[in-house]
Amino acid sequence: MKLATFVLSGVLALGFVLQTLAIGQAADGLKVGAECPDFEMEGTDGTKYSLKDLVGKKAFIIAWYPRAFTGGCTKECQSMKEHGEALRKFNVAYFTASCDPVSKNKDFAKSLELDYPILSDPDGSVAKKFGIAKVGANPTANRVTFIVGKDGKILAIDDAVKTASHGQDLAAKLEALGVEKAEK
User: How many helices (H) and strands (E) in the chain?
Assistant: First the structure.
């Protein structure tokens, strides 16, 4: 009995360690003040977005979500659309992103009538650079949002996203961070 308990405890501990390594290091990897990892992802609008295209022009938001067409992800994307006017008051580009294929994200964006692009990282390589990838046959990303300054440095990391109010919460965070206002 003691041997079985010992073995089970060891298996559970090993599982926890492996899960932690597989998820990445959102909290332990990238930190506020660090340089944003280099990336290039295709948006649902057909444009390829990259770090080099955004840095020096405006701050930007990448709100990662696990899977298109799921409850929390739908609420998060809808909230960002509903509060788009508040977000556009700032000199900021904003995106949601997932490891779904571009075609699935395009269908998702169309179904929600989004007015901003969803970025696709189908092989999970960018999510891995951000420290939020769940590896496996079908990679996914943890629900984590990064706010990056015009200079390419991470201004904020939100790993406790409230999906229904995320757009409003982001606008308030941009204000609190003192992100440059958009020209009228």
Answer: 7, 9
